[in-house]
Amino acid sequence: MTSSHVDGGVRADVRGRLPASPLSGDDARWLGWPLLVGLAVVAIYLGTNDYPAYGAGLYVETADAIRANGYALPATVPHYGPEGVPFAYPPLMFYVLAVLRDAGAGAFGTSLYLPPLFTVAALVPTYLLGRDVVGDRRAGTAAALLLVLNPQVLEWHISAGGLVRAPAFVFALWGSYAALRIFRDGAREWVLPGQPRSRWSPTPTRPTPSSPWPPISSSGSVTTARRPDSFGARSSASARWRSPCRGWRLS
After folding, report:
1. Is 234 helix (H, G, I), strand (E, B) or coil?
2. Taking each helix axis from N to C terminus, what angle separates 137-148 and 28-48, rounded to the nearest 10 degrees?
3. 117: pLDDT confidence band, cut at 50, 70 and 90?
4. Which residue from 107, 148, 159, 179 puts its CA 20 to 30 A from 57's CA?
5. How crowded is residue 36: how many other Cβ atoms within 10 Å of its Cβ?
């Protein structure tokens, strides 16, 4: 049996121990608790703040400058200094905000309600990362709870500045999860959703006797006491870490 056959079997085994889609019915109660806590945190924030915490005036002005410029990128954002602030920001969320403003959304309403929605949305990829890195649904729950109860995260994401920061955080988390599935599992569908898995095979490194990831049971716990040491081998000359999915080495 060639190393590519063994390596491909390992990747299929890893993927077989995870839901075909990122979430399944078995994840409901493990993800449900962080989402409930997140909604409670949002309710407390909205109940204690009549106006958006901190400031997002610059972000709203930026969206309004895009609207005034016919949805072309403006050179500057007015009202900040004698010559305005040069526009040098990733524009995606400003365009989203501009569309919402043209649809009738108020500056205070978007700054108060939109950031908490993205803050709660960030709990989903956080749960998936914790679950799939550790191989235990309880780890995903713990990661999501630690995130939603972290004052530093809430300070800058649930407040008005989260108009831009919270969506960027969500995109970064989903990007991290996609990278995990691509480079660890060889899951091509995370490169371009909808692509068949069988048409892409990462470069094999060496035969790997077993998956380094313990299986996830429906109760959320792993079924092995420890991970088999199949990531790499040490020799007297050097120690190398080899991924079972990619031809990378750290010497």
Report:
1. strand
2. 10
3. very high
4. 148
5. 11
Bridge partners, residue 233, by sequence: 240
Q: Residues of the chain with pLDDT > 70: what percent?
A: 68
Q: Which two tokens stand for residue 217?
A: 């049971």
Q: Provide φ and ψ at 216, rounded to 5°.
A: -100, 125
Strand residue runs (E) in 83-229: 85-86
* pLDDT score, position 249: 37
Long-range contacts, stretch 105-112, CB < 8 angstroms, 24+ apart:
107/60, 108/51, 108/52, 110/60, 110/163, 111/52, 111/56, 111/59, 111/60, 111/160, 111/163, 112/46, 112/49, 112/51, 112/52, 112/160
In one letter, which amino acid is 199?
R
Nearest to 187 by CA among 31, 3, 8: 8
pTM: 0.69
**CB distance 162 to 156 below 8 Å:** yes
d(CA 128, CA 27): 9
Other CB atoms within 10 A of residue 235 CB: 7
pLDDT, tens only, 175-232 = 999 999 888 888 777 776 555 554 444 444 433 334 344 455 555 554 443 443 333 3
